[in-house]
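Re: that chain you flagged

S.,

Sorry for the slow reply, it's been a week of failed gels. I finally had a moment to sit down with the sequence you sent. For the record, here it is as I used it:
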Amino acid sequence: MEDDLPAYIEGVNKSLYDEYDEGVFDWKHRRTPFSLGFTSVAVVEHVPTGTPVAFNPFMPLEVRARGEVFMALQGVDGFVDEAHRRRGLFQRTIEFMAEEMKGRSPELLFSFNLMESAGAAHKADSELVYDMDKCLLGREGFTGLTRSGVELEPIDTETYQNLYTEWAVTSGLIHFHRTMPYLRWRVEENPVRKVTSYRLLSGAVPRGYVVVDEVTEGGVNQLTIDDYTPGLLDSTLPGAVACLKALHPDAGVVEVNAVHGSRLEQAASRLGFTARPWLTVIMKALNNVVQMGGDVIRGELTLSDVKNWHLTPSDIY
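Prediction finished late last night. Pasting the structure tokens below so you have them in one place:
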């Protein structure tokens, strides 16, 4: 992969990003706290030229499920060169990686695919389990918002991790494991977005945490609600957005990404957020996990049932 890295960076900037560089690749794939001991990138080369024409990197992450922790791979930032699309190459990268992972520690392949590429994953025997929508509220929607007894108090990463642990040790929800090394990497070392963590209080009572990231795109300062205690924003979203408006006065857009049809999406809709289809979540069994009748199952736990998960934008790479 090292020899192909310049071609990958050039291609990913044509296909997905504008400012992806080796620093971002280094952060995602070399400095990640969850390592397989090698950088897991599937590369398709054109024969006979040897030119790389498709890439699909996979990031190892830990999943926490009812007291157990296991390894998963998330496909991130994959693309096929425009001249070689519609030839099944993206599908082949998934099949290749699944074969390479046989007998290794990852149990599940997990990815947030743009809807137009989800079909290729499905052809590689992945299950399309549910959709996530992008919900946006422009500056004009900030008018009239009130805090309604909600306050946001800045906290450090250690406090964020402690607040996460409070719900994670008793919750049955499946989620990506937020260890301290992971949060330091995700929050403090992020080369792309400025990440800020808050404790949310309602009626002066601590209720959990809200984490936001900030980035400028197209000259507009965009604030994404990145992570939060499960269920917290279903009732406190208006007050939280009002607080964020005051704390980040330059923000022109607030973004909330939510599972399609979820209570959070409904709360965002009532507040005036505009929702549009965005990602399809795919899963494929690797080790110690099986696929049966469209379900992805680990022991007695149905991983493909959205009701079993707590997913937030911080999980999307």
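What I noticed first: The mean pLDDT is 94.

Talk soon,
D.
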